[in-house]
Automatic annotation (TrEMBL):
This is Putative methylthioribose-1-phosphate isomerase. NCBIfam families: eIF-2B_rel, PRK05720.1, salvage_mtnA. It comes from Nitrosotalea sinensis. GO terms for biological process: L-methionine salvage from methylthioadenosine. Keywords: Amino-acid biosynthesis, Isomerase, Methionine biosynthesis. The keyword Isomerase applies. Belongs to the EIF-2B alpha/beta/delta subunits family. MtnA subfamily. The record marks C161 as: Transition state stabilizer. The active site is at D241. Gene3D superfamilies: translation initiation factor eif-2b, domain 1 (1.20.120.420), Translation initiation factor eif-2b, domain 2 (3.40.50.10470). It is an enzyme of class 5 (isomerase). SUPFAM superfamilies: NagB/RpiA/CoA transferase-like. Its EC number is 5.3.1.23.
């Protein structure tokens, strides 16, 4: 890929009644697009991280459900709704922690339930799925503008995992804020963690920023404390897979320890996420943390790095409590502590 990541390069899109995705498991070595016409293939793509990042997963789920509506052989409205409900279950079970997936699926089902005929349902869900994708880009750009005011000229910004164009339809959440900060004329540098075990920081974030011409340095996850203690980090920004009404943030495993170290060193820690990432009903005890396969930990790029039959604990996400968070950047503005009050005010703007 010779050009910078920009809105015309789509992580996921709908074309000719098919879902087209960048296969993120091939990056940064190859830029490969995959095409799906079966919702079950979209489900597998979500499960196997061909597409990842909460906003991108939400749109992919919406597209997958639209495919399910087209695939169904139902000839009456109720049968089609039933088939779509079954497809929704399959798609949802792929990544239970990321709330955007449930949001995207329910948004499509709500449209389907209001239509009266089979053909109306199919037309309506395809149209709505396309709208979710277009809205994602505009939301990210508004979020970027809102967040850019929190960052100063000559800041060095640490980020964890990938919350960029590749985690969304285009532009990005945390990296969208970084892009908007740079585009506002400020000089910034970025420190990206490699983000083991699947290396989204080194494979995806470093890839994106390098191709956008943004000064980026890669560090091992174990060098976060060193970087902060030696004055190399001005601020931190990450994305999120789910945010509760209380301000508890669920994001890629390792986010919690980055936030703890930022607090220890007096470094502001920001989260960037669209309002679709907020779960206003659940409490921390309700949230299921996805546990992923052991082979992600016992080997790297297909090469074994651990003893046979070793026990593995491989959670995909952790929870960062609100007391460690300086602000949550959204398309409707920035929520500041106390979060229960400020988050409610953001939703009141809708």
């Amino acid at each position: 890929m010779d050009s910078a990541i920009h809105p015309s390069l789509r992580t996921v899109e709908w074309k000719d009644n098919s879902v087209i995705m960048i296969d993120q498991t091939k990056l940064p070595n190859e830029l490969v697009y995959v095409k799906y016409t079966d919702f079950k293939d979209v489900a597998e793509a979500i499960r196997n991280l061909i597409v990842r990042g909460a906003p991108a997963i939400g749109v992919s789920g919406a597209f997958g459900l639209a495919l399910a509506a087209l695939q169904s052989k139902a000839t009456d409205r109720d049968s089609l709704i039933h088939d779509m409900e079954e497809a929704k279950k399959i798609l949802f079970e792929t990544r239970p922690t990321a709330i955007n997936l449930a949001w995207g699926l329910e948004r499509i089902m709500n449209v389907a339930r209001t239509a009266k005929t089979v053909s109306e349902i199919r037309d309506a869900v395809v149209r709505e799925a396309k709208i979710t994708a277009e809205e994602d880009i505009q939301i990210n750009m508004r979020m970027g503008k809102n967040g850019s005011t929190l960052f100063d000229n000559n800041d060095t910004i640490m980020t964890h995992c990938n919350a960029g164009a590749l985690a969304t339809v285009a532009y990005g959440t945390a990296l969208g804020v970084i892009r908007a900060t740079r585009d506002s004329g400020k000089s910034i540098k970025v420190i990206a963690t490699e983000t083991r075990p699947v290396m989204q920081g080194s494979r995806l974030t470093a890839f994106e920023l390098k191709h956008d011409g943004i000064d980026v340095s890669l560090i091992p996850d174990t060098a976060v404390g060193y970087s902060m203690a030696n004055g190399l980090v001005s601020k931190v920004i990450v994305g999120a897979d789910r945010i509760l009404a209380t301000g508890h943030v669920y994001n890629k495993i390792g986010t919690y320890q980055v936030a703890l170290m930022a607090k220890q060193h007096g470094i502001p820690f920001y989260v960037a996420a669209p309002l679709s990432t907020f779960d206003m009903k659940s409490t921390p005890k309700d949230v299921v943390i996805e546990q992923r396969k052991s082979t992600e930990v016992t080997g790297v790029a297909g090469k074994k790095t651990a003893p046979d039959d070793i026990k593995v604990i491989n959670p995909a996400f952790d929870m960062t409590p609100p007391e460690l968070i300086s602000g949550i950047i959204t398309e409707a503005g920035v929520a500041k502590p106390p979060f229960e009050e400020s988050i409610k005010k953001l939703f009141a703007k809708l």
